[in-house]
Design a protein that fits this description.
globular; 267 residues; 10 helices; alpha/beta; eight-stranded mixed β-sheet; 8 strands; single chain; 19% strand
Length: 267
């Protein structure tokens, strides 16, 4: 059950673009949710946003070119993760928050790690769900089939086609993969060098059967982010926060409110 707390929505001009956000909750503890590729803050975290905002203030934003942060059309320069990170930092500044936590999933987890590295004084805690710091040949082999959106889950195609239109979605995916392959050809580094600059307590959560981002990426993050904790989700796939939201919500709440990093079998 959730209360009748008001959902606030708006747009702010951030680095030359109108960025859309949702906000709900109250209290000094603030959490920013960062969505995955093609997603929006509220759609990607709909199973978490309302529950978590009962005990803290939660902001969910749509990165430029996604969801309601359009126009512009989404672009994928080689530094698009860093652009999203800088946008999210400026968003929180304009909302008046100088200290907050981050919850990022997939591409949003990458953005969250870069955000934490660029703004160490502002980020109190970081939770990265099914994220990675680099692309390997294994990732290319796993991801390449999804360059054809007909191989996607039909429900996802329908949902995203309603937002963007199917032809636009197809083009966005092509542009995304073009950059994905360029990053791999350039050595695969997304944010390896930034990991040393993450100073806040960090919780790395990853499904052991993620078909898109293998959990060896979580091991790498745990080894290279100081003051980090690793929670592997047995048999968990890519969207663990959607498939098992009750446990993920409890994990996030305990980590943020009590500085406790639980293991999955403790939930």
């Amino acid at each position: 059950m959730t209360s009748e707390l008001e959902l606030q929505s708006g747009k702010l001009e951030i680095n030359g673009v109108e960025i859309f956000y949702n906000k709900r909750g109250h209290g000094q503890t603030v959490l920013l949710c960062l969505p995955g590729s093609f997603g929006s803050g509220l759609s990607d975290f709909k199973h978490n946003f309302y529950v978590l905002s009962e005990s803290m203030t939660v902001v969910a934003f749509d990165p430029r070119g996604y969801g309601n942060s359009r126009p512009p059309t989404r672009q994928y320069p080689l530094d698009f993760y860093h652009i999203d990170a800088k946008d999210s930092i400026q968003l929180m500044n304009k909302l008046g928050y100088d200290k907050y936590c981050l919850l990022g999933w997939s591409d949003g987890g990458i953005t969250a790690m870069i955000h934490a590295a660029l703004n160490p004084k502002g980020v109190d805690k970081l939770i990265a769900l099914n994220a990675a710091a680099y692309f390997s040949q294994v990732d290319v082999d796993l991801m390449s089939p999804l360059e054809d959106i007909t191989k996607w889950n039909p429900k996802i195609i329908d949902t995203l086609s309603e937002i963007y239109g199917k032809e636009t979605l197809i083009q966005m995916n092509k542009d995304y993969y073009k950059t994905f392959y360029q990053l791999y050809d350039n050595g695969g580094d997304i944010c390896k060098s930034e990991l040393d600059n993450i100073s806040c307590p960090t919780l790395i959560v990853h499904g052991t059967k993620d078909p898109m981002i293998p959990h060896f990426h979580a091991d790498y993050l745990h080894q290279h982010i100081k003051n980090s904790h690793l929670c592997l989700v047995p048999d968990g796939k890519h969207a663990i926060h959607k498939r098992q939201p009750e446990k993920i919500n409890k994990l996030v709440e305990r980590f943020i409110h009590e500085d406790t990093a639980l293991q999955w079998d403790q939930l």
